[in-house]
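request received
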Amino acid sequence: MITCERFEKGFEAWQSGKLNPEEAELFRRHVIECAHCRVFTPAAYRLRELTVSLPQVEPSPGFTYRLSNRLNELSTRDIKTTRASVRLLPRWAALGAGLASGLAVGLIIILSLNSDDMSKPGISMTGTPVASHETAPINLVDTTKDIEDSLEAAEQLYDLDRKFQVVSDGK
Amino acid sequence: MDVLPAKKTDEELIHELQEGRKEAFDEIVDRFSGPLNNFIYRIVGDGVTSQDLLQETFIRLWTNRHSYREIAKFSTWLYTVAGNLAKSELRRKKVRRFFSLSVSGERSLDGEDDRTLELPDEDADPEGDYERRQILKRVEEEVKKLPFLFREVIILRDLQELSYEEISTILKIPLGTVKSRVNRARLRLQIKLMDLR
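response:
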């Protein structure tokens, strides 16, 4: 069995009886079995010979150099992009830290309020009456100030990072 | 006696490239820039655009080098990339021409520049070569005038000499369709070039 490609290539040799009998038989069988090659005539062969011999259009001599420059440009840009994504980290870190500290302070307030409720006279966990003056007063004003301070610190950190980024981007 | 080292297969080269050997990329460029440029040029019909697209093909190879899997031949993969870029370019050209007010009469119906492609000048043998060059020029013109569907299969089969199987993979069409398109394209060319006989 031969392929259509082999048939097209060896067509002329087959037609002019240059093939050995075994090969010629393979060609004869192929043309019977393959509808595509059945219409491959001597004229089609000559045309194919012409198209195959059309000159190859090569790229200009500086092509490789230009390609190499372009690839260098691209890899430089890749490095810059990677750096930019690394610079983004502190901003998110600052935001995360701000949120985390806010949550922590909130949790402390809730827990303190709960413990304040628990330490009221008559509702001690141990059953022993607890005098209200024994409970350490919770300074709500200070706690709120703490929250504000930490949020402000986070915001400042965020602003600072943003300014740094603007400066480093050269805008 | 020195024995020349065996030429690496395309698949070996891309494998080396995937492993980070930059020289393998240079070798691939060296091996494929001629045939691919020829292929793209025959599709888009313009030397500057074909080199831009060739460059883009190799850039895509570089950036997507790790996504190549050995399920298809490497050359087929590369031809597919180049062919897709060339087709997109033709589509863009069509859109540009549609919106352009300066459509000139020198362009053919299928959207290509109709100016003839200059064959490289070969010195020596004035008469015989001249006649042959004229014939080839005619063939080239007629190939260029073929409708796109026929032109691309003729370029791949009769100019680039790819197998029917490879063409079927590149164009994502059944093998039977490739063969029938090739036959119809050849028949059209034979009719157009009848006077050459």
